[in-house]
Amino acid sequence: MKVCIVGSSGHYGYVLDSLSEEVEIVAVSPGVPGEDINSLLSKLRQASIEPRIYEDHLQMLKTEKPDVVVINTHFHMNGKILQEALQMGIHAFVEKPIATNFEDLLQIQKLYTKVEGKVFFTAMFGLRYRPWFLTAKKLVESGAIGEIRLIHAQKSYKLGQRPCFFKKRDTFGGTIVWVGIHAIDWIHWISRLHYLSVYALQSRIANSGHGELEVTGACLFELEHEVVATLTVDYLRPQGAETHDDDRLRLVGTKAVLEVIDRRVILTDQTGTHLFESQAQGCIFEDFLNQILGKGKCMVTPEESIYVTHVALCAREAADTKRIVKI
């Protein structure tokens, strides 16, 4: 399959982790003028791949006519380039959020409706494929915790020095929709419950000179069946921490409490506390390709990509306006 890559500001590493004889990376381009793609080119060359280089992504897509385009440029452009891919009939592996505003998301939904069954796209919800989250989902589906009544999720990252486009809401999109969206996805994917409303707060204080970037935030969600879910996000993980991220998930059920913490899965029920061995690591890009090739079903669907992005945008709106937003 011929693959083109637009940009290098996201998780193109998912693609490099799943290189095979079926994948031919033929060309790359920046997604916005001035985007530095040298890190991408360096890693491709380390893998003995010498792609053609274009300055304009649209010219690249028209000339190369790829089967797949990987879209991971500055975040405000990902949704616009996804629209172009859908219009051109090109399958897309796109960074999340797939849109940073409701208008782009609505256009994506309309375009996908026209090409559904012919063109496929997936948001880069690669954390679903981490062993501990796969194990947690399997336990919930087995009925091990009973009926879910309460959920809490945490996303915590080291801030470091982020690129300049992170410093502007117009180009970054906001921390809730960039970081928090992962946890919004876990909650829906594992519980299979839909969101009804959200209230949220966020703050830019102590963002180490990163302009409009929020470094803390919290969301309170109302889910179906009176289930309550909370989510916190922060960019204040200490630089001395062993890992870049600190992802946590806690699901309280009528039979047990299930926790994902420190990359471990712990279940506490009437018989005590149990540590579960995690499943094998999955590969989202491989899963995406298998869907296109007719070899399987991708765990992240276009419909879920649209839905979770919509919820994240609602949460950001709630934080911006300090009011409850219906979903």
From TrEMBL:
Domain of life: Bacteria
Native species: Pseudothermotoga hypogea
GO molecular function, one term: nucleotide binding
Positions of the Gfo/Idh/MocA-like oxidoreductase N-terminal domain: 46-119
Residue stretches making up the GFO/IDH/MocA-like oxidoreductase domain: 133-258
InterPro entries attached to this UniProt entry: Gfo/Idh/MocA-like_OxRdtase_N, Gfo/Idh/MocA_Oxidoreductases, GFO_IDH_MocA-like_dom, NAD(P)-bd_dom_sf
Protein name: Gfo/Idh/MocA family oxidoreductase
Matching Pfam families: GFO_IDH_MocA, GFO_IDH_MocA_C3
Coiled coil: none
